Amino acid sequence: MLKPILGAVARHPREVGRIIEGLTIEEDKKHTKNHYWSLWKLFAKEVKRAPWLLQLDHRYPTGHEVLTAILLASNWKEDARTWRSLEGHFHLVDQLFTELPLVPIVLDDYLRFLYYVGELALPHAFSLVADALKSEKSTVAFKDSNTIFLLEDLLQRYVYGRPAELKKEPQLRNSVIFLLDSLVESGSSAAFRMRDDFVTPSA
Description:
Layout lengths: L2 H5 L5 H18 L3 H15 L15 H7 L19 H10 L4 H13 L7 H11 L10 H15 L3 H5 L2 H16 L3 H11 L4
Helix pairs in contact: 2-4, 6-8, 7-10, 8-10, 8-11, 10-11
């Protein structure tokens, strides 16, 4: 029954994106977990081999709708920070992010996932984002104001709220400094203040 829908990921990503969103809305009501994530993995597998992935950095890319849906980046309440169905499964979204080409659309969707319901993926996700940005395959430059806002907000939650958590692991600390430096280079005054506070030893 799913075969034609999965096969449509390559040809009709907008329509398939709506189907995935519908599944997520139903999961939010019923919390079946295993059933939902079994279906999610089937769709993620098709997304990873969709031909339009190679064109995501074009001016008018195809596939944005299905990417937003599979990365759980839309339709959350503004104050949503966790999702019960993500418990024990958030690593699947993290892994998909690392396996997709790092273009602005993918980064923005992943950051929106973290901003809304991906709290369980933090702060480890900072290292994933930093490593992806350092990759030779990355085509991201911090120019989009929404992307900058999302990353600033996520970093502020930890730099000011839970700094010790960021500093106890050298790799994570270095990743956070890299992200702050990248934001500063893009002109972020918030990141400039955060970086000063973060690297200044506590009295």
